[in-house]
Amino acid sequence: MSDENSKIDPETPETAAKLAEILAAEPARQGEAEPDAAAGPDVAALEAEIAELKDRLLRVAAEMENTRKRAERDRADATRYAAANFARDMLQVSDNLRRAIGTLKDDEREGAADSVKAMVEGVEMTERQLLSIFERHGIREITPQPGERFDPNLHEAMFEVPGTEHPAGTVVHVLEGGYTIGDRLLRAARVGVAKAEGAEKGANIDTTA
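Below the sequence we write its predicted structure tokens.
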């Protein structure tokens, strides 16, 4: 084939149509190869979304930490106060030991037989050991002294005593000592309270906190 026959004649209708088709498709190819910068990601929106996610993460972390601390506190309270009911019952044993010791006056004890003295000493030792066990488990005695101000949070007024040397509203007599376990009241001290002079019959002291 000669060179003249291999040349494309741009003047022919077929060649003109082919060139028009190629030129029409060129802008589309250029758009695919070079995307418009305006169509890119919104940086401001992405930063706002990241900030929101960080805030949520911090909130979740804080909530988890609070939950952990609350669980630890509940577990510690459960351990500390688990024996509260048992300890409350054991207080009656301590009361009975103290009453048993109190029935023997000092002069009677001095003149008692050696076996009786040994028994009293054994009861006293048992009471001391029981109180030591109470202390070891966070149980402490709260026995007010005569003249101490009545505290409705710790004391229970059983009766009023008129004509005492102590100011009205103060403790005069202690029937039973009180006890706390940790920072909670296990049993209020049962006491008699000085009555105000000239108080009407049947008047009661203020036992509200």
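Helices lie at 3-6, 13-33, 43-81, 84-102, 106-111, 114-136.
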